[in-house]
From TrEMBL:
It comes from the Bacteria. The chain crosses the membrane at residues 175-194. This is MYXO-CTERM domain-containing protein. Keywords: Membrane, Transmembrane, Transmembrane helix. It comes from Actinomadura viridis.
Length: 404
């Protein structure tokens, strides 16, 4: 007589089995986040939805059973074998994620956008997880996800130029801002514009993969809450670009460039999760910028072109935008001079023996230049200008380790 015991069901199978009884699964460790009364309310909303919706609330922990919302949704869908929307927490704090099987592409995008909306809506700032789930389910059911997402994030996409107007590059040539019309022209033409005149930078505002510098201009004017929203938006948008990327990694250099892009994306997410203030949020944008540069390089190399030269941001304040010159600079109290890349305004200030408009951090109740924070992660790395392994340091946990 065999003494073999039947194998215990896998975590994915257990969730799928529970979803066959109810479209809501909440891990016991998170039961208080979605209490029974709120589950009943959520269930009523789900039953009114024209598309099946499955809510899965489990801890997402790096190295744990589940560490990625897409992986979670995919595994459970494979076990449940029912099409519909799988709504889960995201691995970025405070956000939700949704993936839909079946339906049209527009419907799938509506569901994905609906999950992101609560994070950006002001009335959801202090909302509970249950509140956010209910809001997302309502938007999915009403088909209003994409429309509300565009509305909730409109302020993050504003440009200083008048809509429809043109700015000019260094040669006086017109450059279209990233309006819908400008994006449409680029899509119809199917082109990626490179400028390789003696190493000149790519015209970022018309390149669909590079971070528009207007994003940094808006970030510099934002308060801390607005900057956090914008940083989160840029990370999510960059992730979408990566999701849509399908390149021949066998071509020389493509695999390495894609790896750099993915590593930068992961690092940006880790910094966003741990962000305590403006210096960290600026770091998120620096990492997204690096990742987008690497992704643009991968695209160019895959198409038989050349690698896109990265465009470093201003050392004194990355939110100033591109570093256009390299200067010698001696930090206060130090004998050695550093070579740092800065924007034009900061370079002029240093040459005139004035203090540049630096990015500050709060230490013991007072604001100090970020690079004067003793033992500070950004002070040590200079946002990548003082160390060439910024992404690696973030991924191995240096940012969090310095705060313990």
């Amino acid at each position: 007589m065999s003494t073999d015991r039947p194998l215990a069901p896998s975590p994915g199978q257990r969730i799928a089995s529970a979803l066959r009884r109810s479209p809501i699964y909440v891990d016991p460790s998170l039961a208080e986040a979605v209490p029974p009364a709120r589950r009943s309310e959520l269930l009523a909303r789900i039953r009114r939805s024209p598309v099946p919706i499955f809510v899965i609330v489990v801890p997402l922990v790096k190295g744990g059973t589940w560490d990625d919302p897409d992986h979670l949704a995919t595994v459970v869908h494979d076990r449940l074998r029912e099409d519909g929307v799988y709504l889960t927490p995201d691995d970025f704090a405070g956000q939700l994620a949704a993936r839909q099987w079946g339906g049209t592409r527009d419907a799938q995008e509506n569901s994905r956008d609906a999950a992101r909306v609560p994070f950006f809506q002001k009335d959801m700032k202090e909302a509970t997880l249950a509140d956010r789930l209910i809001r997302a389910v309502d938007l999915i059911a009403a088909g209003r996800g994409t429309a509300e997402y565009e509305k909730a994030t409109a302020h993050l996409r504003r440009r200083r130029t008048t809509p429809g107007s043109a700015t000019t590059d260094d040669d006086g040539l017109p450059v279209l801002p990233l309006t819908a019309a400008g994006a449409g022209v680029a899509a119809v033409a199917g082109l990626v514009v490179w400028r390789w005149r003696r190493g000149a930078r790519v015209r970022r505002e018309e390149h669909p993969l590079l971070l528009p510098r207007a994003v940094l201009a808006a970030a510099e004017r934002a308060n801390a809450d607005e900057l956090r929203e914008q940083a989160a938006h840029e990370v999510v948008t960059f992730g979408e670009l990566l999701d849509r990327t399908d390149l021949d990694a066998a071509r020389p250099g493509v695999h390495d460039a894609l790896t750099r892009a993915l590593d930068a994306y992961q690092a940006a997410g880790k910094v966003l999760d741990a962000a305590r203030g403006v210096p960290d949020l600026a770091g998120v944008l620096v990492l997204v910028d690096r990742g987008r540069d690497a992704l643009a390089s991968a695209r160019s190399l895959a198409d038989g072109g050349r690698e896109v030269p990265p465009s470093p941001l201003c050392f004194f304040n990355p939110l100033h935008g591109d570093a256009v010159t390299t200067i010698g600079w001696r930090p206060l109290g130090q004998r050695d001079r550093l070579r740092v890349q800065t924007c034009g305004a900061c370079a002029s200030a240093v040459k005139a023996h004035r203090t540049p408009e630096v990015l500050t951090d709060r230490v013991d109740g007072r604001l100090v230049p970020y690079y004067e924070v003793e033992g500070g992660f950004w002070a040590e790395t200079g946002y990548g200008q003082l160390r060439d392994d910024l992404v690696h340091r973030v991924l191995r946990g240096d940012l969090k380790a310095r705060r313990r």
